[in-house]
Write a structure and sequence with these properties.
The complex is a heterodimer of chains A (about 270) and B (about 500). With about 270 residues, chain A is mainly alpha-helical. Chain A folds into two domains: about 35 residues; about 210 residues, Orthogonal Bundle (MetI-like fold). In chain A, helix 3 crosses helix 13, helix 4 packs across helix 7 and helix 7 crosses helix 14. The longest helix of chain A has about 35 residues. The radius of gyration of chain A is 23 Å and the shape is globular. Chain A starts with a helix and ends with a helix. With about 500 residues, chain B is of the alpha/beta class. Chain B folds into two domains: about 230 residues, Periplasmic binding protein-like II (D-Maltodextrin-Binding Protein, domain 2, 3-Layer(aba) Sandwich), CATH 3.40.190.10; about 170 residues, Periplasmic binding protein-like II (D-Maltodextrin-Binding Protein, domain 2, 3-Layer(aba) Sandwich), CATH 3.40.190. Helices cover about 45% and strands about 15% of the residues of chain B. In chain B, the strands form three sheets. In chain B, strands 6, 7, 8, 9, 10, 11, 12 and 13 form an eight-stranded mixed beta sheet that branches. A three-stranded parallel beta sheet of chain B has the order 2-1-3. In chain B, strands 4-5 form a two-stranded antiparallel sheet. Chain B is globular, with a radius of gyration of 28 Å. The termini of chain B are far apart. Classes of the chains: A mainly alpha (about 270), B alpha/beta (about 500).
Chain lengths: ~270, ~500
């Protein structure tokens, strides 16, 4: 009898995943189910579709959503424009690893503290808080998330491809465009995912760096829950989730052969 | 086969999640229960649920114990029993109401604002203090305790300021619940603190003459003062900012036509129909261009540090900030470079009266009460002039205790002198003790209209359309990249062209 139990329970890799699965269930899946349930309930806990109607017919919610998406796109583009050259140069340098650490170092400080410090600097410099400062804060906060995957991808590109291109007479620009850039597409994609998805849902950065004047989708969700409008708040969270899933799907489509890179990153 | 088992596993997993979600709800509630009844059944416990920083924390240097500890001593003295006070706090009425309305707050005493009291009352969550008093009377009589401070037990005004009580009676003496039942709020609550809404301003930038001339218009920078532009803070709170918008519209004749005959503040600030919301949205959207932003917590600090020059504020917060701005070498009479102005009188340009809001917070006993005697004694203890003034000085707000009683009390005067206040100045400050008249209105619970108000507030804060500057930024970025690529290919093409010999 004992033998059979022992046989059944073997300390395999699977056994170690049990705590993590339980954690996921409790803190990821269960809250999601609660949001889903709340989305279909009105304030008296009756089943209703009214929340959907409220959200999709209110111009303000859609404007806020549009603003958030735009801010997300702009932040991602700026991060990519700054991040790619930085990652490229760093991967060519022998001391690149240490310099990357310098870029990533601010991430170890809590982002709220960083954002408050940024705000204090802006006020001291007399810069008017508004969309500009919010965009700055976003780029500043999410730039490391762009540089990290790009750096990993670019430094793991096999040098022989580049050498081959050079041997065949390509100049530096052509080498870059025909070998490095196509080979780093997977890094670009995971960088975009890691910047775009968090930026469309932030709320603290926009609130702090604009004194509440810039109102993004995250702020909207927060306001709904604060005012006790759980139904509408849940719908907004679901919409957010839908955007996360959609952008993930699109990225995965582009990124079919990026598995190797992702493995090396995580 | 393999596929089948995978699907099965998925189903099992999903069922498990649903089960967990369902079981979690009562589990959380149970957790809440057990934590708030800590101390066990044998101990005498009072559970107080109050605003953050809303009671005298004591002063160890001056040898003054906290209000809670003093209540424990008082309780021991009058009943001969020990009591534990479990003191929890909330930061917005909404947080508190959500807990109470969902029956998650197992407490004996709460201190909500007037509209929250109205909402809880109509939801049938509050216990009548008058009835509790009748029930406890034999016990109280046996112990020789009189609850003479309370206004809710059929004792006239108790030790509460009559003018404040009158405002409450006028407004809330017959609150009608959705089931048709009427409640007299004065039997369910005893006021604790009260105050007004007004403008905290920097005297270096805004003079008294400007305040008198522009009134609420200051918050819209209506005189186009360059120094004030983008240096104004509003409250990030729907109800208060809506009230400010209405007062401003009234003062400057911007109300929709059909409200031309409104005579008092009370009627004005409780209008929440679509037309009024649209008008308020328009002025709030316009205001957004002139202000620095919206806050609920950092406004006082920004005013003291002179980052902004005007802040829409509650009187208590404002008076606290004014005191903080004291500087011995100041050029101003009272030594403070900040001032609090609650708009009154008439606007000299439009000839319209200025209104403001009067609000109050009060002690209520929810139906979940488990220690009625201690709850009643606590409320009564808070009404005593010598205790009321301590709370008032500690937190900056005006206590609801009768002003005449306060001024008469030797304890109060001694305490104020000890805190380096001039007694006449303290009670004569119109920021602290404004004249209560028709120009001050109470704001009721907006009920189902609240959702529309929140929606309007979102629109006002988000602007009327997608931000155009964002499109420009995006266009510049994309255009820049496009041009760079174009230039590159142009160069390539130039290189490839056969060179002339």
């Amino acid at each position: 009898m004992k033998e059979s139990i022992r046989k059944k329970f073997r300390l395999t890799k699977k056994a170690f995943s049990v705590p993590y699965i339980l954690f996921l269930l409790l803190f990821v899946v269960v809250p999601l189910v609660l949001i889903l349930v709340n989305a279909f309930l009105d304030s008296d806990n009756n089943l209703t579709f009214e929340n959907f109607k409220t959200f999709f017919t209110s111009s303000s919610s859609l404007i806020v959503l549009g603003n958030s998406l735009l801010v997300g796109v702009i932040t991602t583009v700026i991060c990519l424009l700054i991040g790619y050259p930085v990652a490229y140069i760093l991967s060519k340098m022998s001391s690149g690893k240490i310099l990357v650490l310098l870029y990533v170092l601010p991430m170890f400080i809590n982002f709220l503290i960083r954002t408050l410090a940024t705000k204090a600097i802006f006020i001291a410099m007399g810069v008017e808080l508004g969309m500009g400062t919010v965009l700055f804060g976003m780029v500043y906060n999410y730039l490391p998330f762009m540089i990290m995957p790009l750096h990993t991808t670019i430094s793991s590109i096999d040098k022989s491809y580049i050498e081959a291109a050079q041997d065949l007479g390509a100049d530096r620009a052509t080498v870059f465009l025909k070998t490095t850039l196509p080979l780093s597409v997977s890094g670009i994609m995971s960088g975009i995912t890691m910047v775009f998805i968090p930026t469309i849902s932030t709320y603290a950065i926009s609130q702090l760096l604009s004194n509440g004047k810039i109102f993004l989708f995250g702020d909207s969700i927060q306001l709904s829950f604060e005012q006790g409008l759980y139904g509408v708040g849940s719908i907004m969270s679901l919409v957010m989730l839908a955007f996360v899933l959609i952008s993930n799907l699109i990225m995965n489509k582009f990124n079919k052969n990026g598995d190797a890179v992702r493995r090396s990153l995580w | 086969m393999r596929k089948m088992s995978k699907m099965k596993r998925c189903i099992v997993l999903f069922a498990l999640c649903a089960l967990l979600a369902l079981s979690l709800v009562p589990m959380l509630a149970a957790c809440n229960d057990s934590s708030s009844t800590e101390g066990g059944s044998g101990r005498n416990v009072l559970k107080v649920y109050n605003w953050e920083d809303y009671i005298d924390p004591g002063d160890s240097e001056a040898g003054r114990d906290s209000m809670i500890n003093d209540f424990k001593k008082y309780y021991k003295q009058v009943t001969g029993q020990d009591i534990d006070v479990v003191y929890t706090t909330f930061d917005t009425n909404e947080t508190m109401m959500t807990k109470v309305l969902k029956n998650d707050a197992n407490v004996d005493l709460i201190c909500p604002s007037e509209y929250a009291i109205e909402k809880l009352l109509t939801a049938g969550k509050l216990a009548s203090q008058k009835e509790i008093y009748q029930e406890l009377k034999p016990t109280l009589d046996a112990k020789g305790i009189q609850l003479e401070g309370m206004s809710s037990i059929g004792n006239g005004y108790g030790m509460i300021e009559p003018a404040v009580m009158d405002v409450i009676t006028n407004m809330f003496s017959s609150v009608v619940a959705s089931d048709g039942k009427t409640y007299d709020m004065t039997e369910y609550m005893v006021p604790y603190m009260w105050g007004t809404l007004g403008i905290l301003y920097n005297k270096n930038i805004i003079s008294q003459e400007e305040l008198d001339k522009y009134g609420w218009g200051v918050l819209w920078n209506i005189e186009n003062n360059e120094k004030l532009e983008n240096k104004i803070l509003m409250k990030d709170s729907v109800r208060d900012t809506y009230a400010a918008a209405l007062f401003y519209m009234y003062e400057y004749n911007l109300l929709p036509q059909k409200y031309g005959d409104i005579q008092n503040a009370q009627d004005l600030i409780n209008i929440t129909d679509d037309e009024m919301l649209a008008a308020a949205e328009a002025v709030l959207t316009e205001q957004r261009e002139h202000i620095s932003g919206y806050e609920v917590d950092f406004g006082k600090d920004d005013m003291i540090n002179e980052i902004v020059y005007a802040d829409f504020a509650w009187s208590g917060d404002a008076l606290w900030a004014v005191e903080e701005s004291y500087d011995e070498e100041s050029e101003y009479d009272d030594g403070c470079f900040l001032g609090y102005y609650c708009p009154t009188g008439t606007n000299p340009t439009t000839g319209k009266e200025r209104f403001s809001n009067i609000w109050y917070d009060g002690w209520v006993i929810p139906k979940s009460v488990s220690n009625k005697l201690a709850a009643m004694l606590f409320i009564d203890f808070m009404c005593r002039p010598e205790n009321a003034i301590r709370n008032s000085v500690a937190i900056g707000y005006t206590c609801a205790a009768d002003r005449a009683l306060l001024e008469e009390s030797e304890d109060v005067c001694a305490f104020l002198e000890d805190q380096e206040y001039d007694i006449e100045e303290y009670f004569g400050d119109i920021g602290r003790y404004p004249e209560i008249n028709q120009a001050l209105g109470v704001m009721r619970d907006f009920g189902a209209r609240n959702e529309h108000l929140v929606d309007m507030w979102q629109r006002a804060k988000a602007g009327s359309g997608v931000d155009n500057s964002l499109w420009i930024v995006l266009a510049v970025l994309v255009g820049g990249v496009g041009i760079a690529i174009g230039v590159y290919f142009a160069c390539q093409a130039a290189k490839l062209r056969p060179k002339k010999i």
